[in-house]
Amino acid sequence: MQAVTVVPGGAPALVDLPVPTHRAGEVLVRVAAAAVNPVDGFTAAGGPRDAGWVGPDAVLGLGWDLAGEVVAAADGVALAPGTRVAALVADPTVATFAEYVALPASDVAVVPEGIGTVDAAALPLAALTSAQSLDLAGEPAGRLLITGAAGAVGGFAVVLAARAGWAVTGLARPADGEGIRALGAVAITDLTGGYDAALDTAALGEPVAATIRDGGAYVGVLPGAEPRTDRIRSAAVSVRADGERLAGLFRLVEQGVLVPRVRATVPLARFDEALAAAATRGARGKVVVTVP
Q1: Which helix (H) or strand (E) holds 33?
Q2: Which helix (H) or strand (E) holds 118?
Q3: What is the pLDDT of residue 193?
Q4: From CA 129, how far away is CA 123, in angstroms rounded?
Q5: H helix runs in 138-176, sequence order
Q6: With contact defined as beta carbons under 8 Å apart, do 92 and 43 qualify?
Q7: What's the confidence (pLDDT) of residue 285?
Q8: Residue 176 above 90 pLDDT?
Q9: Where are the domains of the chain?
């Protein structure tokens, strides 16, 4: 099969690898689409090795999202071949910019009828990051600031937080204000104070922490980069695969509550163009790698 990997000291390359073997409790998925996320640029530069997530000699794989079709399942796994599924693969050594991926059955969610495979690929990482970040913020208790509210993670977080009972304020550029208000938040373009909690998807750090009242909560998306202060509670999400929760998020897509946004698709053979397109600042909607 073909997959995009990054060897130590090298650039991302499309290489030939053996089709992975699924083990007990796992499924083998034929990938049809995989969204590009900011973490892929980090991985392409060797970031997981530099950060100590993996060993210095590890071969990295690009891609964390996938949507595709089950082609084989271990004994006792109730997912028949041909079932459309999506998943988050939070292992930097596994590529989802690939033709096949083997992963735990508990990590996958069935893609409901009516949701396209490309749209399904745009959901797992962003939506699970949003949901798990809000868990860290605690029970809804007043005003929540979400930075980067027009982005993939921030946009999903605005909707989920408003549904949970937070009074949400979204920070973004002026051009995004109307869209943020449509999601259920107050839109702002400059930081103001007086929040009970903040979800800092834009990774602004200390200026965001300064807007939080004493005893409030700051939640970041870059583990290890959260502000260090005793004045507020600080945490950062380390997103993890969760098939059951992802299935619940897909139900919200079915209901029209969450809307995956895709602005471009690029075939696997031109993955480098997908990485470049996804890195365009200010562009809205996911770039999705498609696998023929």
Answers
A1: strand 26-35
A2: helix 117-121
A3: 87
A4: 10
A5: 152-164
A6: yes
A7: 92
A8: yes
A9: 2-123+260-290, 126-236
